[in-house]
Amino acid sequence: MLMATLINPAIPPSPSRRFSVPRTAPNAKFFKAPSLRCVRKNCGINGLSTTPSPMDNGGPDDEESSPEELSEDEVEPKNNQIWRLFTEAQKNILYLNRQRVKAVEELNKTNKEKQLLIDKIKQLEKKQKESFMKILQISSMSNNLALCWELLLRIDSMVLGGLVSTEEASNLRRMVIDSEVSLVDVFSGSLQERDAELLEELRHFSGGSKRKGFHIIHICTEMEPLVSVGPLAPYITGLSRALQRKGHLVEVILPKYASLDLDEVQGLREVEAESYTYFNGQLHGNKIWTGVVYGIGVTFIQPLYFSSFFNRDRIYDYPDDFERFTYFSRASLDYIAKSGKQPDVLHLHNWETAIIGPIFWDIFAKQGLGNTRILLTCQGFDSQCLDEPDKLALCGLDPGRLDRPDRLQDTSKTHLVNVLKGGIVYSNKVIVMSSMHSKGRIIHSMSHGLETTLALHKEKLLVSPCGFDNSTWDPSTDKFLPVNFSAEYMGGKDACKVALHQQAGISKHASSILVGCVISEVSDFDLEKLRADVQNATRGGAQFVFLGNGAVPTVNKALRYLQEALEDSNVQFFTHCDEALSHLVFAGSDIILCHSLHDPLLQVPLKALRYGAAPVLEASSDNNFRYSADHDHEITRFSQFMRSTFGIMSLSQALDEIRNNPSTWKTKISNAMKKDFSWDSECYETHVSAYAAVKNL
Fold first, then answer.
1. Quick one: which of 318, 249, 258 has its CA closest to 289?
2. What pLDDT, on the 0 to 100 scale, is given for residue 524?
3. Whole-angstrom distance, CA of residue 324 vs CA of residue 307
4. What is the rounded distance in angstroms from the CA atom of residue 237 to the CA atom of residue 255?
5. Where in the chain is the domain with CATH 3.40.50.2000?
6. Is the peptide bond prior to 225 cis by the omega test (within 30 degrees of 0)?
7. pLDDT tens across 595-605, in order?
8. CATH homologous superfamily for 215-467+689-695?
9. Is the domain covering 491-677 a CATH 3.40.50.410 domain?
């Protein structure tokens, strides 16, 4: 602007204005006007030569030389030419100034974006560092906890071998559990020693108080990843790890199945001591194996005389299941009593170990376990065991005392005893695993013949939702995704959607809505309704990716039927998938079709919420929960959340909301991703509340 200011006074006011040429004598002399130049501070002239003109320095012919005389007709064109030149120069200067201002603005914007990027990188580096430190901390805690359990299991071995009394063993256990000192630093090299040598080190070891949590022993038939058939296995492992993360001591007792996967067991060893179980009027020997899984102490009981009990292809569904699991239940209590353990809670699971309730109170509560309490968890009441009352005598129970309507006698088939009913009657608390259903509905509509018993013991009944492993299923750290994302940064989900489109061979459209559907062997979709819903949705522009296990005959048949009925370029089927594809389907989908919102095995709804995909019911079976009475408040927080968001929607309603209310939909998705539905949340809180309640009885 300064340059333009300097030039403007020299510009003629108008092209029509002429220089007046004075009429003088013919001999009058004319002089050239000095050249106009834009001079910089240090005498620089816009990059041009700074050599002065002859007129500035004065030439040798200064006085003699004179311009040619110009007539009035010649002056006017020159004036016009000068005006045009100056006008163009001014326009060029103004244009350059505008470009300069624009460039400065762009530079400032770039610098601002650069600074924001630097700040974001610093935040990510800080978060990554915190995550790394957390991993190191968890790893250190895990190593210490694993060694703690190896020491505790060695103490059990010392008791069974007669090296220490049950009283001294109890003191040694408490010392190890309460130690503030890192056990890895003290005992990492001592585990290879014989029991007698390790005992001397333990007797000289002391530590301060640290742990104030509960000591819980799960007696169960499944545990992930060792043996997994149904929802019990992930529940045992997920809940146990959550409890130990919060300072509680948890151990698990399992049958030693011949088909057991022992690759994940750390420090597996056979206890060199005798263990006996009273069964069918005699004492029978067992082998005891111990190890650590995910930092959890695990004990395996292997019958010797009844070796065929757990040396089979399947885990369940044999004619002698009552004998098999009653033996294991009694053997578990014999082991606990002989090893001198005094847990706060014995946690039983389903009908298979429910018989422990009456065995404990009739026999073992008097053998030093008077302060221990019983909690029973049921994954559902559809699986029960009814048998002849006389068989109760196999494990030392009195059939005459227990074959009564208020105890084990079955309500409908009064000539039989119901093992699960006995577990409910003889437990201090009963937890039913149900993410969506209320206590009232469970008692009156889902009890499978146990309604009278459940209603009578209603006060001891609690309902808990399932959880899931949010460390493995976390979109912000998921190693299977092309780009990670979170509720705060959703750009990565768009990239995952593009990747899923590419892998499925589906053309991506700007307004396309991608729906994922997982069909497993436990799903029983209404295929005709599903086909009609998909066809209606694709007409509106929706796209579908079906994921199934083609190795399962029923699933393979269902997928083939749908593939033939839905010949559409916007529908793709994966009959065989690996873990990476499974993660990508959740990450790339906008909606996940679910057969049920209570899915304890596959946990499809929980994974969908975590990955920013709305879990929407496909059809019938859970629809009636949408219309439950408003006054029914005995439901889980998860159920309350689903009823207020995606659980009340059909597929067509969900598609309409995405199209018509995108901002509302994004808010719902973001809020859902921020919710914690892991094992550490509501499931953990419900169980700890139950443990505290039974300890106060």
1. 258
2. 63
3. 10
4. 16
5. 215-467+689-695, 491-677
6. yes
7. 888 888 889 99
8. Glycogen Phosphorylase B; (3.40.50.2000)
9. no
